[in-house]
Design brief:
TIM Barrel; about 450 residues; two-stranded antiparallel sheet; alpha/beta
């Protein structure tokens, strides 16, 4: 990669809207790009680090570079009207309170909590809601540790962007490990605990252990058999597992988990093959595997970043060669800058099919393209013809009701559709799961769309 300016990429340094001009490579950016970063970064979160800027971005071709678009705000990530609102406020040098008000007004129009995360996924214990815990699928409980509610860098498409913008009521987090253990003990059907965020691997090993040790205690009384850790650290800061001051302690914690007979799954997020190319990430993968961790890989399909079959087949083949397990291709969620990143369901299925055909069977553990929507994870199996009509063939990979899993159903063919909420049943006036959804949620049904990012 040409035109890289390196300091010491293994010593972490974060950049945001306030200090990103200190990145040596951005000196060459034109004024219009700085303006776009300022406007869009005032609404959507922006944070990048020196590993990403030094090792992953091709600054000679930054405008079309996938990692630059993955981490730096782009004008198209705001709708024209929203861009104009924030640009006007910045140009008249509005005060901090007014800028926040303008930003928050825009943010609430971006569907900040899709798929029933607030009103349907938060469980209760002794009648009280458990902030920082979600339980959507029977076997899997999500835990949002409060110390893990940031990331080494932010992805511009992130569906959890509300976690990072400081809006009241938009953040899931908890310090209550005791409540988590009590909830898990009361729900033996939950076999999987998923630590998510933010990024749990932003935490030190000492803090991470404070959350995990109560779950691992012999008298915890839970039925947890798998601990998953959702993280982008391998892609954005692999030194977390190699040369960071507590990297060895982190690996010892992971070894303690696996020695207990608990499956440790690192749910690694790779959006582009370049994130798998550096010596640093390959060393980190080797260390995690040596600690007994599985590494499963996933990403959304994103226009401007990985919307070619070659990108996906290369990722899957490389991941398998590095002893990782391809797991999910997601559809970009209906939140934030979806309009910028989304591909149509028809395009997604065609791209998936070409990528899938380009790899051997050992890579075909991956599932997708999948929408994490309100009733569950819905996979687009393809386009077919039934009774003379073109239809989408869909099925649940996971459902709020476990009985929905693996049940195929049909939607009217729509070449412009990008999400479940615009699809219509191909036969009858409703999908098979809608009556049960209405019975459970009543008037709330259909407020957002028809998940959690496992």
């Amino acid at each position: 990669m040409k035109n890289t300016i390196k300091v010491d990429s293994s010593t972490y340094r974060a950049y945001n809207l306030q200090n990103y001009r200190q990145i040596p490579q951005v000196a060459a950016l034109p004024a219009r790009m700085h303006r776009d970063i300022a406007v869009v970064g005032s609404v959507l979160p922006f944070k990048v680090n020196n590993y990403v800027t030094d090792e992953l971005i091709d600054w000679d071709d930054y405008e079309s570079d996938p990692i630059f678009r993955l981490t730096f705000p782009q004008r198209g990530m705001l709708l024209p009207g929203h861009y104009a609102e924030m640009a006007t406020a910045l140009e008249r040098a509005a005060g901090e309170a007014e800028l926040k008000a303008v930003a928050d007004t825009i943010r609430v129009q971006l569907n900040p909590h899709p798929a029933g995360q607030v009103d349907r996924n938060v469980p209760r214990l002794d009648g009280e809601p458990l902030a920082g815990i979600q339980h959507k699928y029977r076997e899997t409980v999500l835990f949002f540790p409060s110390a893990g509610q940031t990331c080494h860098s932010y992805c511009t498409f992130c569906f959890r962007w509300p976690q990072f913008v400081g809006m009241e009521g938009l953040r899931f987090a908890t310090r209550e490990s005791e409540l988590l253990v009590r909830y898990l003990a009361a729900h033996p059907e939950a076999t999987d605990l998923l630590l998510t965020g933010g990024d749990p691997m932003i935490m030190s090993s000492r803090v991470l252990a404070r959350y995990l040790d109560p779950v691992l205690a012999p008298d915890a009384g839970t039925n947890i058999q798998t601990i998953r850790i959702g993280t982008k650290a391998l892609g954005f800061w692999p030194y977390r597992f190699t040369t960071d001051a507590d990297a060895d302690d982190t690996l010892r914690l992971f070894e303690r988990i696996t020695r207990r007979g608990i499956n440790l799954a690192i749910m690694a997020h790779f959006s582009h093959p370049r994130e798998l190319s550096t010596p640093a990430v390959r060393a980190a993968i080797r260390r995690l595997r040596s600690a007994g961790a599985q590494i499963r890989t996933q990403s959304p399909l994103l226009r401007h970043i990985n919307d070619t079959p070659e990108a996906w087949s290369t990722m899957w083949r490389t991941q398998v060669n590095l002893n990782c397990i391809p797991y999910y291709m997601f559809i970009a969620r209906d939140t934030g800058a979806q309009h910028y990143f989304a591909v149509t369901l028809v395009e997604a299925w065609d791209l998936w099919r070409q990528a899938y055909q380009g790899v051997s069977g050992v890579c075909r553990t991956v599932r997708g393209p999948s929408m994490s929507c309100t009733p569950g994870k819905v996979q687009v199996l393809g386009v077919s013809e039934v009774e003379g009509r073109r239809v989408f063939v869909l099925r649940f990979i996971q459902g709020r009701n476990p009985d929905w899993a693996a049940r195929p159903f049909f939607a009217e063919y729509d070449e412009k559709a990008v999400w479940m909420n615009t699809l219509r049943p191909a036969f009858g006036d409703r999908f098979f799961f809608e009556d049960e959804e209405r019975e459970v949620y009543g008037e709330q049904y259909g407020d957002d769309d028809a998940g959690s990012f496992e």
